[in-house]
Design brief:
Length: about 240
């Protein structure tokens, strides 16, 4: 199997972008200790992908810390080990869901909603939530830590072709075709969840819009990705 060159210009740029996304997530309060992972599949169809290493805070990750692994979790390049649970979840989502970029977090407000009986964000509430209308899958069946191939594949099958998965009693997965767009969705997903949790905390009745309107807003947001690119470049300058 021929794998991409870890030191090539293309792979170096992906390592830089992945490290930036991790630092930005720490900056925005989306990290949890040294747990959770971001990954990006490498071009060329080899199945290899880049992943943050075991044991580093997201705030300290730089491009040279990113590890290149194969589908079995073997380290192909990089100076750090990887965590097994990362491989089981990420390898399965890359392979079974055909996702290029996979961001898995236990970010506070999204995770809070996975603890409710609804399990998920209501995409007919805030304008920010509407951008995710029709893009979310729910895995309501928490099954313990992802310590094996079977659990990773179960999560991936629950996600299917959705861009986002809410994992009951666990956290969230956000996917995209490129890092900048996936990170933008991750950030705004947590913001939308925060708005819903705050609204729920008032004890007042919530005021959803019609589902057809939410679908239209989602289409409008999906058709305008320049803002996502600008946001990521602003993060590149500042984080």
């Amino acid at each position: 199997m021929a794998y991409p060159d870890y030191e090539s210009t293309e792979v170096r740029r992906l390592r830089e972008d992945l490290a930036l996304a991790l630092r930005a997530a720490a900056h925005h309060g989306l990290a949890e200790g040294v747990c959770n992972h971001f990954s990006i599949e490498l071009p060329g169809g080899s199945g290899a992908f880049l992943l943050n290493p075991r044991g580093l805070l997201w705030s300290e990750v730089r491009a040279d810390d990113i590890v290149m692994v194969d589908t079995q979790g073997a380290v192909l390049a990089g100076r750090h080990p990887v965590e097994p649970t990362a491989m089981y979840i990420h390898a399965a989502v890359h392979r079974l869901c055909a996702k290029a970029c996979v961001l898995h977090t236990h970010m506070p407000y999204a995770t809070a909603l996975t603890l409710t009986t609804d399990r998920v964000l209501d995409t007919t509430l805030s304008q920010g939530a509407m951008r995710f209308h029709g893009r979310i899958a729910v895995d309501p069946n928490y099954n313990g830590l992802a310590l094996g191939v079977e659990e990773g594949e179960r999560i991936a099958r629950a996600m299917g072709k959705a861009d986002i998965a809410f994992l009951g009693n666990h956290g969230a997965i956000v996917c995209g075709e490129q890092i900048a767009h996936a990170y933008d969705d991750l950030y705004y997903l947590e913001r939308a969840c925060m708005h819903q949790v705050l609204a729920m905390s008032t004890g007042r009745p919530l005021a959803p819009v019609d589902a057809a309107l939410a679908a239209r807003v989602c289409d409008e947001a999906s058709g305008e990705r320049m803002q996502s690119d600008l946001f990521f470049e602003a993060l590149r300058r500042t984080v």
